[in-house]
């Protein structure tokens, strides 16, 4: 109801915004800008690991998270036989949040990158089980801790001065925000596309996906006021980890 009243006020209509009843809102995550993402990926790409295969793993795992909106656990635990499954140009996410499986289509550029990576990795570990093998134990998958530590290191090396620091999960947020912003620029109707996006990123409820309207409004303050296509009511939902 509060979100509906807020929306009505933005449209110049009379409305009363009720108190929050003492509910503490979830903090908005930090969404890196395009320039910040380029700086982070530059640091990741130029890192030299003592385990040579990690020089292939790290740039690819972060790109897959950014370009497909994967959760960190979904990227780390991606199996080798789930690449090009159920068909070429797709990956299958097994045991996502809520133990749900889903198929994710890759863009042509990302598919090409993944194919080159897979071929080079096969030359090192031809019988590997995991798409992203770990560093100290390549028979296992790369750990979420390793991914988080590398992202933090790369971010700190960029020298960006901000009150908040992004995490690998920020790449998932950036994917959704950039997707919705692209719809805005294409004059597409997000109400028709949100259900597809919700399934693509593995949300258990479409309401969780609508939460990103709030993130979009925070990142681009005048965006929702300027675009008539953003006419959906923004429900207030729990911030999904």
From TrEMBL:
InterPro entries: DNA_brk_join_enz, Integrase-like_cat_sf, Integrase_catalytic, Tyrosine_recombinase_XerCD. Pfam families: Phage_integrase. GO terms for biological process: DNA integration; DNA recombination. Residues 27-228 form the Tyr recombinase domain. GO terms for molecular function: DNA binding. SUPFAM superfamilies: DNA breaking-rejoining enzymes. Keywords: DNA recombination. This is Tyr recombinase domain-containing protein. It comes from marine sediment metagenome.
């Amino acid at each position: 109801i509060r979100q509906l009243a807020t929306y009505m006020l933005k449209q110049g209509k009379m409305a009363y915004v009720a108190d929050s009843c003492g509910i503490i809102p979830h903090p908005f995550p930090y969404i890196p800008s395009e320039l910040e993402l380029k700086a982070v990926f530059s640091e990741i790409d130029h890192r030299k690991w003592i385990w040579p295969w990690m020089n292939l793993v790290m740039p690819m795992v972060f790109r897959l998270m950014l370009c497909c909106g994967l959760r960190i656990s979904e990227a780390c635990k991606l199996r080798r036989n789930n690449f090009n499954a159920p068909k070429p140009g797709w990956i299958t996410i097994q045991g996502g949040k809520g133990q749900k499986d889903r198929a994710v289509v890759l863009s042509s550029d990302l598919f090409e990158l993944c194919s080159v990576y897979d071929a080079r990795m096969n030359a090192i570990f031809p019988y590997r089980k995991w798409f992203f093998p770990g560093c100290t134990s390549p028979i296992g998958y790369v750990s979420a801790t390793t991914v988080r530590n590398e992202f933090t290191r790369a971010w700190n090396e960029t020298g960006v001065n901000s009150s908040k620091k992004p995490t690998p999960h920020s790449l998932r947020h950036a994917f959704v925000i950039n997707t919705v912003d692209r719809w805005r620029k294409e004059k597409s109707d997000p109400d028709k596309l949100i259900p597809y996006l919700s399934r693509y990123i593995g949300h258990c409820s479409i309401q969780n996906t609508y939460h990103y309207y709030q993130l979009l409004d925070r990142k681009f303050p005048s965006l929702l006021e300027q675009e008539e296509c953003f006419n959906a009511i923004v429900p207030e939902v729990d911030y999904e980890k």
